[in-house]
Amino acid sequence: MIKKLILILTFTVLLLISQEIDTVWIKGYNTPDARVSFDVGSSIAIDNSGSNIYIAGSSGLKKLLINYNSQGILKWARSELSVYSGEGAPLGLTYWNTRIYYTVCMTHQSNPIFESQIYTFCYDTLGNRIWGQVFGNQYYLDYPVGLFIDNQGYVYVVGTACFDTTAEDFVLLKYNGNNGNLLWWKRFWSTYDYVLDVTVSAAISRDSNSIFIGGISSKPNVYKRALIVKYSTNGSLIWSIVNQSCSTLIKVLPDYSGNLYVLFSENYLVKYNTSGNLIFEIVLPTIEKINSIFVDENNNFYVTGSIFNFNNSTQDFLLRKYSSNGSILWEKTYDSGMNDEGLIIKGFDNSLFILCESQQGKFFLRYSYNGELLNTSKFYLYEYEIADFVISPTGNEIYSIGSVPIVSSDWPNDIVTVKYGVSLKRRQK
Predict the structure, then answer these.
(1) How far apart are CA 396 and CA 324, in angstroms?
(2) Which of 93-97, 107-111, 250-254, 373-377 shows the lowest per-residue confidence on average (mean pLDDT)?
(3) Of these four, 52, 157, 173, 364, which has the most CB atoms within 10 Å of its CB?
(4) DSSP run (H or E) holding 314
């Protein structure tokens, strides 16, 4: 175990086979505390110059914030101490104006009486904590799902909070980004009687004027349905929608005109206008599975996931482009000969970067907005569970954050960060 970190970095590099998107370096962070046996990488951010990468994760009782430079050199690591392990990993890691923000569910050792509250922290680029704030009360089950910063530097945290013993509700918090003062908080609940309104996804509008929250509203043994609300960044409730057609919401995503896409696991996608009225709905066939959605500057949208291949009875990677009115513009599939699936899709400079998974492991594909396959890669460390990735400001690098799971009782897993180099020579606009 003493040389485990060197060993894992050595054998993983040997197992990498890539095309155009090449692995540059791999870094594993294992807590210095030998008693800890479970590390999880959960969130990642990059500064405006691309010189510093910030990652967040959990290691036993510690909530970690770690800074690497672009060469993979560890600059610093900081931690917040929890009373219990397994409460949650840091989310919403965001770099803004030389500061780093994240939110996490935890029972902080400085306040051990109140369990599982929503903590939000702000650090500077040297690793100094600027402020930390907590929201919650004596009731259990307060946890965040995301953090957003508007164009004025105000910080919004969205999650679920339990305000009494009978229900859970959506909660939206607004902080002053400079000093951490709580400016206001909003609670949304559908009814009082034993109804659980659980936040699943949230997003800020492109103009920073609105916050969208989506989740599940359920009354045990009675009903389960989707709930979507829209707030102004001043804290006013603009509208709320109950969608009776589906119950398992995956993601809410605004376009560049203030309309909202909502993706459901039941192969169902809807678009609402700025007033909350339905524009269209798309019901996908059961042979497809959609995991992620992206909207470009022209309000065209892209979905990725998988589609069943009847020729070899496997799942193929699927990428499809729609116009803003819901018409299919093109569709692309990718077949490695095994089960393939698109997990997360992001855009940069008229191209799409997609994190994919096959039975061999995670890999990336890059397509133009016109559907041309530009780059491929293979990453055969199948144990590497990637939580998220970021694209550098130049588009020449990708950084992923994730974890290598426990292999044996004396081999604690690592928080693993990987840098990939991207060839842009074939990029088309």
Answers:
(1) 29
(2) 107-111
(3) 157
(4) strand 314-322
Whether the per-residue pLDDT at 15 is higher than 50: the answer is no
Phi-psi region of 72 (alpha: psi -120 to 50; beta: other; left: phi over 0): left
Rounded Cα–Cα distance for residues 361 and 338 (Å): 11
Tokens 């305000």: give the residue.
163
Separation of alpha carbons 57 and 76, rounded Å: 14
* Phi, then psi, of 100 in degrees rounded to 5: -125, 130
Contact 145, 160 (CB under 8 A): yes
Structure tokens at 76: 């610093």
Best CA proximity match to 119, nearest among 148, 138, 144, 100: 144
User: Whose structure tokens read 């729609």?
Assistant: 322
Distance, in Å, from the CA atom of 7 to the CA atom of 221, rounded to the nearest integer, reads: 51
Answer whether residue 167 shows pLDDT above 90: no
258's CB contacts (< 8 A; 6+ apart) are 205, 206, 207, 210, 274
The DSSP symbol for 380 reads: -
How many other CB atoms sit within 10 Å of the CB of residue 398? Answer: 25
pLDDT at 274 over 50: yes
CA end-to-end distance (rounded Å), the chain: 49
Phi and psi at 324, nearest 5°, equal -65, -15
Q: Which residue has the tokens 């709905």?
A: 281
Q: Number of C-alpha atoms within 13 angstroms, CB side, residue 367?
A: 24
Give the per-residue SS3 of 152-219. Answer: CCCEEEEEEECCCCCCEEEEEEEECCCCCCEEEEEEECCCCCCCEEEEEEEEECCCCCEEEEEEEEEE
Which token pair is 158?
């969205």
In whole angstroms, what is the distance from residue 72 CA to residue 68 CA?
6
